[in-house]
Backbone:
């Protein structure tokens, strides 16, 4: 079995060297990496850790685990309006399984290269399977999108469509049966979510608050409301649902799963009314699909209304690793 | 049991807010943190992960685990000559044990505050006990100390003394019996190593290569030799040993443990002969205790010589998590 240093070099170091950005002065191989931050830009930093049987089922492929570990971090950077640049990896794994590592590194570099982010450092150790990533991006000074900028009267939007990840979880749990092609499609959305990097960057001068939907729209929009000290009303009928979710939604026990289940990695953001025309321009130019779902209000709390305008009771406010059993 | 978000806020978020540096524009609480890098400085980034029963015995106190997790990262920054500034934390733990978290956060902020580094982000999840830290520092452009700068003729130095961590491990394994006070002293060195931040910064214009001794002098000096494409001869008699290590060294089965065992977190660095006077000045001004142990040579490989000038055979080249059984 190869040693730790050799492993890191073979599966991560060599490939990382071909993947460097101009800001990276020194990548993997020393005590630390060195990067340069161009003048006028601020550094945006996020970190997320994925644990086997908590964040992914143990049967998940190494490539999908690696892909998602980086994707969820890039999604956080997208929600800040940042341009992802580099990341570090901490990998704890029970054995130095070379075929697993090969697959893992392929999944990792597949997404890293498609978003032009460089692996600049890492630590590989023996232990239970735990994958940690810390990712950095850059944003023009003062242009980052925070959770705290929403104001009364703003329109609330989400990018893309919601529900595919919820459907995939129902499918994994055996609650819903999909045909092979449909199953592959929703599993792709669950295992390889596409971070809304381009969309986030386009919103820098449009949105005044933003968050990525990792814990479910209800939970994440609530974070925005709390940080901004406002409330909101959202129209359930306006939530953009994918075609496949619409097809199966009647069979999902939780009728609100599209807004209470996590893992969609779309963006939820608020836009002052006088900037809606700019947003419409982004949609027209196919920068992103953005759908208005509600309005920011002074009264605290989140109200989700049905077609008749009645407030729906929502008992479950998203995913909390210590509050509830995992979906897996 | 409190929920994840509440936990993070109570044990990390609130205290982190009082601990911010001026470079930190936005700390914990949004999708990502925002920092500003002053002009003329480069960012230095490192990451290390600690796993229960691999990097620390399961009986280690939460405060010591937290302290060491940050200390080993600060040691990497010290080896680059960087000024540590901020860090992120990924914490996977089996249960949300509030007294454990309280103790952990105390150990973490004890070292964070003493080195003026800010906690800017993190992720707390349910899973096996795995602690990941990613730390960043700043260094004037082009002044970072790399492993690759050693040249033939340079003098090789180490900071402080070696051997206490090796002695602590022997003590934990029951091989050596120390009295209570001695045991407390070496356990302190093992569990709460003091990163050589001040020393590393002082070496920016003196040393031409540097590494921290985490895997043992032999293994780590070898990294410098490989990166610099040189060799070296080290005099065993010149290795600076602590008083307590000298007292017990005859009882340690591995006579080379001070140079082959890890966890000392001192610096090993090389100095061109024409800068030795500057280094002597640093020692005189008590910036650091630096001891010359050998010389860089053209012939590849590391030769450790005994008093008679004979090369000692060294079978074991430091710690490798996948090559050898853990000490714990």
Residues:
């Amino acid at each position: 079995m190869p040693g730790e240093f050799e492993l890191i070099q073979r599966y991560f170091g060599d490939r990382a060297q071909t993947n460097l950005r101009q800001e990276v002065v020194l990548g993997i191989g020393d005590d630390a990496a060195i990067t340069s931050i161009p003048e006028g830009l601020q550094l945006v930093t996020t970190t997320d850790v994925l644990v086997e049987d908590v964040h992914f089922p143990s049967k998940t492929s190494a490539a999908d685990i690696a892909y998602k570990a980086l994707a969820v971090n890039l999604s956080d950077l997208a929600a800040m309006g940042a341009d992802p640049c580099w990341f570090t990896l901490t990998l704890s794994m029970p054995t130095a399984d070379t075929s697993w590592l090969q697959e893992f590194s392929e999944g990792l570099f597949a997404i890293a290269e498609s978003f032009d982010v460089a692996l600049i450092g890492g630590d590989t150790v023996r232990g239970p399977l735990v994958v940690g990533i810390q990712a950095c991006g850059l944003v023009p000074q003062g242009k980052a999108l925070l959770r705290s900028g929403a104001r009364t009267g703003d329109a609330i939007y989400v990018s893309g469509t919601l529900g595919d990840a919820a459907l995939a979880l129902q499918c994994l749990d055996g609650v819903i049966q999909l045909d092979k092609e449909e199953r592959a499609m929703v599993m792709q959305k669950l295992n390889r979510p596409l971070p809304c990097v381009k969309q986030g960057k386009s919103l820098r001068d449009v949105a005044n608050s933003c968050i990525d939907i990792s814990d479910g729209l209800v939970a994440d929009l609530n974070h925005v409301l709390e940080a901004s000290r406002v409330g909101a009303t959202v129209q359930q009928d306006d939530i953009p649902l994918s075609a496949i979710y619409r097809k199966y939604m009647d069979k999902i026990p939780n009728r609100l799963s599209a807004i209470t289940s996590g893992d969609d990695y779309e963006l939820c953001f608020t836009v002052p009314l006088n900037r809606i025309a700019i947003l419409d321009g982004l949609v027209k130019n196919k920068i992103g699909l953005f759908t208005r779902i509600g309005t920011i209000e002074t009264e605290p709390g989140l109200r989700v209304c049905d077609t008749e305008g009645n407030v729906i009771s929502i008992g479950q406010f998203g995913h909390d690793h210590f509050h509830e059993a995992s979906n897996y």
